[in-house]
Every structure is written in C-alpha cells, then in structure tokens.
Automatic annotation (TrEMBL):
Residues 80-259 form the Amidase domain. Gene3D superfamilies: Amidase signature (AS) domain (3.90.1300.10). GO terms for molecular function: amidase activity. SUPFAM superfamilies: Amidase signature (AS) enzymes (SSF75304). This is amidase. Belongs to the amidase family.
Length: 261
C-alpha cells in the first residue's frame, strides 16, 4: 500500500502567491472596484485622485536632490516619505501589476531607525539617507523571494541581502518592494505566470517593455523616485523609452551583479 500526495499545481501556487501579495497591501490603500482599462486607460489621474495633497507633493517631486536635502536636514522624515511612496506604489500596482514582493512594514521600521539615527547623531547614514528605492525582482533582499518570474522559486525567502541590496542599505536607502519582470528576464516585455502582465501606466492597454518593465512602470507612475534594474540588451533602455523616463545602463562590471538564485 502506498500513500500518494498531491502537490499544488503551478496555477494554485500562482493564485496563492498573488493572494499573499494582495494581503500585504493595507486595506485603506486597496482600490475597489479597480477601473477597467477601457474606462481609465491612464493610471495617473486615478492615482492622483486617491492621494492627499502632501502625498502628491512628495511623490511628484522629480528632483531627488530636493528630497535628499530635506531628509538630511530633518525637515522631512524618512517615515513620511516612505509611506507616501509605498501608498502610491500599492495603488499603482493594483492598476498595472508592476510589483512582485511587498515589504512595507519592514521598510517603515528601517525608516524609523534612520530617522532616529539622524535625530540622535545629527548625521546621515549615507548619501541616500532615508530615500525609498525600488529594486527589480532579480536582486536578493532578506526575508522575501527572488523568484525571477518562476513559480518553482516562490515561497523560498532569501536568508540575507546580497550585494546590491547591501550596498543600497549602506548608502542609507530604504528598500520597500521589488518589481515585475519576465520569466528569466529573457524578453523585452514584463510578463510571467506568477504575477501576470505588467502594463504601461500611461496606457494600460500597452506594455511597458522589459525586462525591467516593473521599474519603468513604477517610476513613471511616481510610485518610486529611484528604481534599480538591469540591462544587457536593452532591459533598462526599452522600459525607459516606453515610459518616458531616463535610464542609466552602466558598462558591464561597473556595478556588482550577484543574483539570489
């Protein structure tokens, strides 16, 4: 006699992963109902209608230098800035599927520590002190998956930050989410079975490119002021072009490239 067990199908795992992701969005930030693409093709007016004047002022500031100076002076707290971008990112994700891993509570805790450090010492941790930074779901962040769009790599959280995440934290950045990409990053689009199709915030009937399409969408939607992607054959340049952004693709070897898996 043998006992047979049935593992969840890949569709079941995808459904559960998306449900787990949605549960991490605070109830007060959930859009219900989500407007159809036909009725609201452009996500930006929808986002602006759901934010306070202060949240709009912070998230629509395009000069990072302004935000960093306000953070360094103590005029603006990292907690306030991180909450504003986290809220806008959560709203943008519901309209565009731009995010993968969400870890807002950990980000708020990190922001509080940075604010406390500044208040206690009068100094910043680094040049990105208190700035929320989004990161492509290729880089390892402790406590969350690095699935790269593969169902089989979900539910396997990283045990430690790796090079890019470590460097960003050392510079004072606050990591708060990871962004969508194609399975294995081998497409100039950003679709995978786990999270679905990432779309362009200016026209949700169109794509935002890839493979750093989640970053392109999120930054264009102003849910992030600075996003970290990767580019070998246009993976930053294509989303930047499709989303009306500036993207920097450094020469190979200029930055560490250490994957999670």
């Amino acid at each position: 006699m043998t006992i047979t067990t049935t593992s969840p199908s890949y569709l079941d795992r995808c459904t559960q992963k998306r449900a787990d992701q949605y549960a991490l969005i605070p109830p007060e930030w959930r859009i219900d109902p989500i407007p159809s693409v036909e009725s609201k093709p452009n996500a930006l007016p929808v986002l602006r209608s759901l934010l306070t004047s202060q949240e709009l002022s912070l998230t629509e500031e395009t000069d990072i230098g302004v935000l960093l100076r306000r953070l360094a002076s103590g005029e603006l707290s990292s907690v306030e800035l991180t909450r504003a971008f986290a809220k806008r990112a959560a709203l943008a994700h519901q309209l565009t599927t731009c995010c993968t891993e969400i870890f807002f509570e950990e980000a708020f805790a990190a922001a509080r520590e940075l604010d406390s450090h500044l208040a206690t010492t009068g100094t910043t941790v680094g040049p990105l002190h208190g700035l929320p930074v989004s990161i492509k779901d290729l880089f390892s962040v402790k406590g969350v998956d690095t699935s790269i769009g593969w169902v089989g790599l979900t539910n396997n959280p990283e045990q430690a930050d790796k090079s890019v995440a470590r460097t960003l934290r050392r510079l004072g950045a606050v990591l708060y989410l990871k962004t969508n990409l194609p399975q294995s990053m081998m497409m100039s689009d950003s679709y995978n079975h786990v999270f679905g199709q990432c779309v362009n915030p200016f026209n949700r009937a169109l794509i935002s490119g890839g493979s750093s399409g989640g970053e392109g969408t999120l930054v264009a939607a102003r849910g992030s002021v600075l996003g970290i992607g990767t580019d070998l054959g246009g993976s930053i340049r294509i989303p930047a072009a499709l989303c009306g952004l500036y993207g920097l693709s450094p020469s190979p070897g200029r930055h560490p490239y250490e994957r999670g898996k």
